[in-house]
Amino acid sequence: MATYKKDHLMGSDDNYGIHEDAKRYTLRDNGFLENKNGSFHYERVLSLNSQDKKKAKLKIIISKDIDELKLSAVTSNGLKKIDLYKSDQLEEERKFVEGILDSLVSAKVLKKV
Q1: Taking the alpha carbons of 90, 46, 2, 17 in that order, is the dihedral positive or negative?
Q2: Where are the alpha helices (DSSP H) in 24-108?
Q3: Pair 73, 50: CB distance under 8 Å
Q4: Coil, helix or strand for 37?
Q5: Is the CB of residue 6 less than 8 Å from the CB of residue 15?
Q6: CB 61 within 8 A of CB 1
Q7: Is the N or C terminus of the chain more exposed, i.e. has fewer CB atoms within 10 Å?
């Protein structure tokens, strides 16, 4: 999957990039898992009930050099990207994503650009 210097969720005006202070341990401390190829992956169900299988997911991929990322909100099976900002029915998921992204910004993993 291609990564970019800055990226945004479909439908959102907020662009994010990797914070210059982000390190491997910072990513791991914030829930990212390192793959065999060295890239870091974060996946979270957009619900307080983590067992809810029908809710959308937030996926974040950060390159192994920790300089590029890919943000996406996907369906529960992870196969199709969705626009959380398109419908008022997805307001709960949208607020959840914004909370996650704000916490990653305050942890100096991401920055708004």
Answers
A1: positive
A2: 24-29, 91-106
A3: no
A4: coil
A5: yes
A6: yes
A7: N
